[in-house]
Amino acid sequence: MPMASEDFDERVLAVVEAIPPGRVMSYGDIAEYVGSGGPRLVGRVMSEYGGGVPWWRVIHTDGSAPPSHDGEGLALLRAEGTPMRPGGERIDMRRARWDGVSAG
DNA sequence: GCAATGACTGGTA
DNA sequence: TTACCAGCCATTG
After folding, report:
1. A5 pLDDT exceeds 70?
2. Which of A10, A32, A87, A100 is 20–30 Å from A17 (CA)?
3. For chain A, the helix, strand and coil percentages under 3-state DSSP, each to the nearest 5
4. pTM of the model
């Protein structure tokens, strides 16, 4: 193991996989959820293992679509019933933001 | 150790 | 809404 950040990486991946359909989380939210690093670290992890998790449920804090794609993640979010803003180009974070508790 | 880079975020214009 | 700047932490050369 080249570094000891695997704990952080696994936390991030675990949270992303825990995001229920129709909900999203921002990089900063995940960073606080795992309680370590920062939004830059979350983005770094996604770039490494994002291909094994619902990366499209991880977007920016302003509701802009996920990177490395152009409409792909956006289409998936819409298919899951994610609350979109009037225009359909961005996500309604006010309603789509996941609190980490699908029961509340 | 220093400098540059990156799937980020918030404030100001 | 878009654009620019500063802060944040870890990886890489």
Report:
1. no
2. A87
3. 50, 10, 45
4. 0.91
